[in-house]
Design goal:
By secondary structure, the chain is an alpha/beta fold. It has 12 helices and 10 strands. The strands form 2 sheets. A 7-stranded mixed sheet has the order 3-2-1-4-7-6-8. Strands 5-10-9 form a 3-stranded mixed sheet. It is elongated, with a radius of gyration of 34 Å. It starts with 20 loop residues before the first helix and ends in a 17-residue tail after the last helix. This is Nucleotide-diphospho-sugar transferase.
């Protein structure tokens, strides 16, 4: 017939027919208990299999606030989940100097077009004094797809910075909504570079690089920035800084400074990042966090607002105090011509002849109010 084995006891079946009624009743009770235990074990086994094969076991639990918080809580050792951050890290590592410093510019379609601003910028590095090697450390931050495609066709270190719902491909006129959005997007992204652990020299693309600027930077200073107007004292916060050129070291102080800078948009609505920097540069919070700030001399870091007068000292020249891409292009092209004439001189001529810039010309007639 059939037999049931329960635990380590004796099999129950036909051999037990001669047992007493009490023994038979006990056997039936034992059989029922074994069946119940078997059913319970089967249910537990199926439940465990379902839980094991569910990608998120908490999905089987009630959607209470407690379980909801567990469901959305990331693992303690989770790495940054944003894909673009990994891409950025790769680009920064590829371009960085030994001390984890990169040179960064931003580029959109209007400034990336052939024979446009990007070409002038690269030419300045090509013809500058000991600037050729710096191209290897240049990170181009493309603000639209065409600018990115132009970059990757000619340069190894390109990063595509997308901004949902905003088209940055066209020229952004001064203080328009697109301009303000672009400037603040740029400022926030520079903080991301600091958070990745990299120092950066940020340069507007309409700045021509004629000499290696690193020997002119202050050592071990957190934040140093070029000026539209410089009064001769690099410590004086009455200098008028220009956000288009700065050297920033990555540390907790500069990261907090950039956060404070961005948060100040609420205090001063409708202002660009440079205007707000001028308003917060004396704020006690910067002293509290221990930020060291220096202002760079226009003798080395000049522009159309306040030109560098000595060709033997100038490192960079900026097409600031100027409206319009066409006006900037014309005057910067002439400026590169001035530099080429200087570089064609021999050492004696460079030391004895006084050269001057032939610009601004077009930009002089398009000065911002």
């Amino acid at each position: 017939m059939w037999k049931i084995w329960c635990g380590s006891g004796t099999p129950l079946g036909d051999s037990e027919k001669s047992s007493s009624p009490s023994d038979s009743g006990e056997a039936q009770v034992l059989v029922r208990w074994c069946l119940r235990i078997g059913i319970i074990c089967s249910i537990l086994t199926v439940s465990c299999m379902v839980l094991y094969n569910t990608s998120n076991p908490f999905e089987l639990l009630p959607d209470s606030s407690f379980f909801s918080s567990l469901r959305h809580q990331p693992p303690a050792d989770s790495s940054p989940p944003v894909k673009n951050e990994t891409k950025l890290g790769k680009v920064l590592r590829g371009a960085a100097m030994e001390d984890k410093t990169v040179i960064a510019i931003t580029l959109n379609e209007a400034w990336a077009a052939p024979n446009s601003m990007f070409d002038l910028f690269l030419e300045s590095l090509r013809i500058g004094n000991q600037t050729q090697r710096l191209v290897n450390h240049l990170v181009v931050i493309a603000l639209d797809e065409k600018a990115y495609n132009r970059c990757i066709a000619s340069h190894p270190h390109c990063y595509f910075l997308t901004t949902e719902g905003i088209d940055f491909s066209h020229e952004a006129r001064f203080m328009t909504n697109t301009y303000l959005t672009m400037m603040w997007r740029r400022t926030n992204f520079l903080r991301t570079i600091l958070e990745e652990g990299y120092n950066f020299v940020f340069s507007d693309t309409d700045i021509m690089w004629f000499r290696d600027p690193f020997p002119r930077f202050f050592p071990d200073v957190d934040f140093q920035i070029a000026c539209d107007q410089f009064n001769g004292n690099p410590l004086d916060k009455n200098n008028w800084p220009n956000g288009g050129f700065k050297f920033v070291r990555s540390n907790n102080k500069t990261i907090e400074f950039y956060r404070f800078w961005n948060a100040s948009r609420i205090t001063y609505p409708g202002k660009n990042e440079q205007d707000i920097l001028n308003r917060i540069k004396k704020d006690p919070h910067l002293t509290q966090i221990g930020l060291e700030m220096r202002f760079l001399s226009t003798d080395y870091f000049g522009g159309f607002c306040n030109p560098s007068k000595d060709f033997n000292l100038v490192c960079t020249m900026h097409a600031n105090c100027c409206f319009g891409l066409d006006n900037k292009m014309k005057d910067l092209t002439a400026m590169l011509g001035d530099w080429k004439r200087y570089m064609a001189l021999n050492a004696t001529q460079k030391a004895t002849q006084h050269m001057s810039w032939s610009v601004p010309n077009y930009c002089r007639r398009s000065h911002p109010p």
